[in-house]
Amino acid sequence: MVQKLDPQCISKFGLDNVFLESLFKCLSYLSEERDVPLLKAAYPCILDLIATKRQAQVRANLYERVFKDGIITGFSYAGQKIQFLPILLTHIPQLYHAMGSIGVQYLKALIPELCTALSMTSSNNPKIKDINQFAAVSLIAVIKTCWPRIPHYRGSIMQSLAKTWTHYYNAKDQDMCQLLKQVYRVFESACQGQEATDREALIQFNPTVFEPLFCK
């Protein structure tokens, strides 16, 4: 519905702010299964409305509000509910691209959540693989945006990456292995050698499993 409306019209009559405040309230619906469709629809709508704002600073402030009040709060209340995780993870790349360096201040809260989502494993639940994929893509975006601060989190990132890689390498899932190699390459570039000790330790621990992850 939002996409069909004239941006100038909704802005002129102040409807954009009315819609935004209503949608922001929807981001807190994280308790029941019936909340999933509403939450899933709310994020694209709110992002579409923000894009209609002409002032860059206004857009930036709203994107940050979505991330803080939606994503971070969502992880706090629903981080262990797998039905909500894909919704929370899906929009992180877009939000970090929009926030830029502002996103650095949220790394302490975000990186552990991404690492937890990345390292979830299950041999019989396809939803877990989706969560792993969304977490990997989000982690790539976050690392690229905030790369100077990433070495501070290298232990957590390497640990979750190693666990997930082991699972999918043993499962012979080539698509996931390629995605995880992308994560490592971006991570390696950000760390600029500071991850080398952990890398060598993993290779010594199990060269058969880990050499394929680290090879160029």
UniProtKB/TrEMBL annotation:
GO terms for cellular component: cytosol; nucleus; TTT Hsp90 cochaperone complex. InterPro entries: ARM-type_fold (IPR016024), Tti2 (IPR018870). SUPFAM superfamilies: ARM repeat. It comes from the Eukaryota. Belongs to the TTI2 family. This is Uncharacterized protein. It comes from Mucor ambiguus.
